[in-house]
């Protein structure tokens, strides 16, 4: 299968060490023997920290986005280092480059692309652009809940949801640079129009990636309408 995998920066850099990069590199190397892999890496706390400085300097949202994008590309380079020869050792700056680099037969790793697009959106657009078979979004929670599970003990996991239902759920949420309201509206719109098979799962356990690809019942599946 041709698979796009979005990995949140807060997952890879929660402890500011190499461990998650190494764990993911081993799993991605193994999966690359059977699948064509494209990985999109988020910015996480480093991006939010730098964005905070830009705002303190009275920079605009586009400048904040630009700084955040640079951080995602640094994170992508860290993962490329961990992957070594299994990955194409350049970070694509756009979708055409990602497609061109994939001719190498190696794992492609990228970060952001342009202002106003979160890495959630980038992964969904990339999935459509390369005609991916599956999109997997690895985040900091087990999937989509009816309310924030970090704040409410009675939050319930939603196992299946349509893209339209997700769009209604996140409508009106904050879209400033560096914010994370579970999922990006642009990403949902892309998933809806392309009917991309999508699963959202907890990325703190890297083995969940393999489970999703093997079809195990974890996380939240965005189903076709």
Automatic annotation (TrEMBL):
Residues annotated for UMP binding in this entry: 43, 65, 113-119
Record carries keyword ATP-binding: yes
Pathway assigned in UniProt: Pyrimidine metabolism; CTP biosynthesis via de novo pathway; UDP from UMP (UMPK route): step 1/1
Protein's name in the database: Uridylate kinase
Keywords: ATP-binding, Cytoplasm, Kinase, Nucleotide-binding, Pyrimidine biosynthesis, Transferase
EC numbers, comma separated: 2.7.4.22
Spans through the membrane: none
Signal sequence bounds: none
NCBIfam families: pyrH_arch
UniProt binding sites for ATP: 9-10, 44, 48, 139, 145, 148
Gene for this chain: mosB
GO cellular component, one term: cytoplasm
Ranges of residues in domain Aspartate/glutamate/uridylate kinase: 1-202
Location relative to the cell: Cytoplasm
Keyword field contains Kinase: yes
SUPFAM superfamilies: Carbamate kinase-like
Lineage, highest ranks first: Archaea, Methanobacteriati, Methanobacteriota, Methanomada group, Methanobacteria
Domain of life: Archaea
Enzyme class: transferase
Principal subcellular localization: cytoplasm
Example GO BP: UDP biosynthetic process
Pfam families per UniProt: AA_kinase
Function: Catalyzes the reversible phosphorylation of UMP to UDP.
Catalytic activity entry: UMP + ATP = UDP + ADP
Gene3D superfamilies per record: Acetylglutamate kinase-like (3.40.1160.10)
Family statement drawn from the similarity comment of this UniProt entry: Belongs to the UMP kinase family.
Activity regulation (record text): Inhibited by UTP.
